[in-house]
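@channel anyone free to eyeball this complex?
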Amino acid sequence: MSPAAPDRVDDELWSAIGDPTRRRILDLLLAEAGGTATSLSRQLPLTRQAVAKHLDVLDRAGLVRSTSVGRERRCQVDATQLARAADQLASVGRAWDARLQRIKNLAEAIERARQGRDQG
Amino acid sequence: MEPVSELGSIEREIYVEATPEVVFDVVSSPEHVRQWWPDDARYDPVPGATGEITFGEGADRTVEQLTVVESLPPRTFSFRWTHPAGEAAAEGNSLLVTFELQPSGGGTLLRMTETGFREMGWEVAVLEQRYAEHVTGWDYYLPRIAPYVATLEVRP
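replying in thread with the prediction:
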């Protein structure tokens, strides 16, 4: 992450997983190493068609990859894209670690200068 | 479905060998802030004041809005940032950064919290990290989501 893009996270990516239903679908896909709209709809209070629409959104965000199996699409979570979300979070944390270290150095330098003045 | 804003946060703590007064000045006043964060900072460090922080120069220049939320020297300083220009800073359009200072020994314990990330994306990302750490798989740690979720700030 460049310093010119402070703390920004990929909004499109996060919107796709920001929906509780899609979050649940991702959980199921991860837990079962993939699934189809039909298999997912059996475990959710949703029709097959509704699940398929959510899978489309996840597909567009690159979070799932699908392959045709007979008449159905079999979906799997894209670990790379999911890892990107993790990376963004980790980089926000690293950025704050660096800023806090600079705050510490700066405040301690000011404090030492003040004490030096008081003694001199 | 009603959108629910569930917010994830980052928390950090660092011990500084300087008085809370000095540390407060460093985290709040624009002339100090530009030494540890953006290339330029323009705002009044008083509650409600709105200004800008600038990163980079020329074509790479990025300007972010900043609105001071709270200023209680030498204990608390908080601001919102990243909201679109012309919009009032509020929950949902910005990140809230809070510095809390506590006298400790001869120095200050500085606590920083940044809140406002999309909780859902956050949670998935945290899960992914744990997945990488625990190859035993989802059966092992799916039941362990609850303690993590409990640490999230959830607002209806």
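from a first look: The domain at 6-117 of chain B is CATH 3.30.530.20 (Alpha-D-Glucose-1,6-Bisphosphate; Chain A, domain 4).
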